[in-house]
Amino acid sequence: MSRSRKLALVVIVPVLLFAAVQLVPYGRNHANPPDGALVAFDSPATKQLAERACFDCHSNRTKWPWYSNIAPISWRIQRHVDEGRGELNLTAFDPASEDMADAAGEAGETITKGEMPPADYLLAHPEARLSSAEKQALVAGLDRTFAVFVEREKQYKLEKERRSGRE
Ligand code: HEC
User: Fold this and answer.
1) From the CB of 59, is ligand 1 less than 6 Å away?
2) Which of 27, 50, 30 has the alpha carbon at shortest distance from 40?
3) N or C: which end of the chain has fewer CB atoms below 10 A?
4) Which domain holds residue 119?
5) Number of independent structural domains in the chain
6) d(CA 3, CA 126)
7) Is the CB of 139 within 6 Å of ligand 1?
8) Which of 68, 34, 54, 14 has the alpha carbon at shortest distance from 141?
9) Smallest Cα–Cα separation from 46: which of 136, 154, 150?
10) pLDDT tens string 84-100
11) Ligand 1, atom 42: closest residue by C-alpha
């Protein structure tokens, strides 16, 4: 194969592949579902911080960035939003869901541990980066908001420790 043909392949094949993956329907529907039960936040300040740092993945009020229309990154964003809403939806909260009750009990803790918001999200969303004072305020606010679930989580952990101590 001549050099120019090789070069054409190296350039054209990826471009065609890129164009082809844009046709996959998954990740292209960015119509947010309507809100359900909004979490009764303990204060407007907690709600504001959560809106900044958590709502894109944990609510039905996702702001979809322009690159969420471009595959394959759109697939990853779609998965994050679907999983995030499934674990904890702050604008469609369902206390009867075991997953959501658990997540509510751990919400503050995930921030303290640096697990949430995810690091790659923060790279692309400087507005979601919280100062340490804001982090503390959000953790305390979420712990107050979800006090019932935080308490339940604590009891559950104690019970588990007690059981493993007995064995
Ligand atoms: C970029 C999307 C994104 C953002 C922003 C985000 N999360 Fe998450 N979150 C996820 C995903 C995806 C999961 C499920 C998979 C996992 O656990 O990593 C999750 C899981 C959780 C869970 C369930 C427990 C766990 O660790 O699995 C809690 C609680 C949680 N997030 C709280 C928060 C809070 C509080 C914020 C805001 C400070 C936040 N998240 C911001 C995507 C996000």
Assistant:
1) no
2) 50
3) C
4) 3-166
5) 1
6) 44
7) no
8) 54
9) 136
10) 999 999 999 999 999 99
11) 84
